[in-house]
Design a protein that fits this description.
The chain is mainly alpha-helical. It has one domain. 75% of the residues lie in helices and 5% in strands. The chain is built from twelve helices and four strands, in the order H-H-H-H-H-H-E-H-E-E-E-H-H-H-H-H. The chain has a four-stranded mixed sheet with strand order 1-2-4-3, with helices on both faces. The model has no long low-confidence stretch (mean pLDDT 85).
């Protein structure tokens, strides 16, 4: 243990934090079901608002408020204490807490919307509600993947053209060789808030772009920036974002199908009134989460395959193996992977 390198310790602590968060989520959902609190809160919400939709939203917000408070100490230890210990992002506590509440609000909006979609699907097709619910939520996943990243980076940081003329020309030529000349390649000015150098592909269709952080531009040579961008262009050329969205939609459909099979078995014991009942939402979440956990190894294998293929494409387009090796080592060190 004493001879572990820094990245090994960091990744082990990240895994432990993720597992602890998952355990708390399961405990919360199972607890509100087993104690009858789910039924009581759903009934209270229904008594407070006449509309079933409003009652469902109220139930989801109450449940997520409890989750936000429950995982707050763990999130602080993981996102602030650990990151400072390892010399990564140093965010002021007030800024971190604001971001934490913002993420909680976004999660509440997403899950409340998903709950309403399930209610609509039950009204539309009571016997096979999971199918229309899967179709509607899959459409939302694709739409969110297309719009949210582009909007998020625009609001969070300044985007600008690559400022170094020689590098910009080099990247333009690279995009032409890769057959992706229409994809904008922009500098992403994060400043000292960044936890490490990175570049990423965001958006779908017209919103798609390659973002290169100022940490990459300031610390990497031009040939290294070129292989980093080539890797992201490979994801675009191969349509990896579509495959990732398809895998997420497929996992969600399997989870909802499994929930449709489990709900009738647990209805009497938990006093649930069907899939449209707000009190059933914790059980739906548990089943979907369980299916996602079972599928995680397959999803991870597919993701790693995409990354290896993108590296091979980057090497073919740049013909610069030494720069690729240097870049992979530097990014691994920066991200403690």
């Amino acid at each position: 243990m004493a001879n572990e390198d820094k990245s090994t310790r960091y990744q082990r602590q990240r895994r432990r934090a993720a597992i602890a968060t998952a355990i708390l989520d399961v405990a919360l959902l199972a607890g509100v079901l087993a104690t009858g609190l789910s039924r009581a809160v759903a009934d209270a919400a229904a008594a407070s608002w006449d509309a079933a939709a409003a009652a469902t939203v109220g139930f989801v917000l109450a449940l997520l408020a409890a989750r936000t408070l429950l995982i707050l100490p763990l999130a602080y230890a993981s996102e602030v204490v650990r990151e400072r210990r390892y010399g990564r992002a140093r965010v002021a506590l007030v800024h971190w807490f604001g971001a934490y509440l913002w993420r909680a609000a976004v999660l509440a909006a997403v899950l409340a919307g998903a709950a309403l979609v399930i209610q609509v699907a039950v009204w539309w097709s009571p016997a096979a509600w999971w199918a229309p619910a899967s179709a509607m939520l899959a459409s939302a996943i694709v739409g969110g993947a297309a719009l949210v990243p582009a909007l998020a980076v625009r609001s969070a940081a300044e985007l600008a053209p690559i400022g170094r003329a020689e590098l910009a020309a080099r990247l333009t030529a690279l995009a032409a060789r890769a057959g992706t000349a229409g994809v904008p390649i922009l500098a992403w000015k994060l400043g000292p808030r960044a936890a490490g150098a990175t570049a990423l592909l965001v958006g779908f269709g017209p919103s798609r772009r390659i973002l290169v952080t100022d940490a990459v531009l300031d610390t990497h040579a031009d040939d290294e920036v070129e292989v980093i961008v080539a890797h992201e262009l490979a994801h675009y050329r191969r349509g990896d974002a579509w495959w990732t969205a398809a895998m997420a939609a497929g996992a969600l459909a399997l989870g909802l199908y499994a929930a449709a099979r489990v709900l009738p078995l647990a209805a009497d014991a938990l006093r649930l009134q069907g899939p449209g009942d707000a009190a059933a939402l914790p059980l739906v979440a548990l089943v979907c989460g369980g299916v996602a956990a079972l599928l995680a190894p397959i999803v991870n294998l597919a993701s790693r395959a995409q990354e290896r293929r993108a590296d091979r494409d980057a090497l073919a387009w740049t013909r610069n193996a030494p720069a690729l090796v240097r870049t992979l080592k530097r990014l691994s060190a920066a991200h403690l992977t």
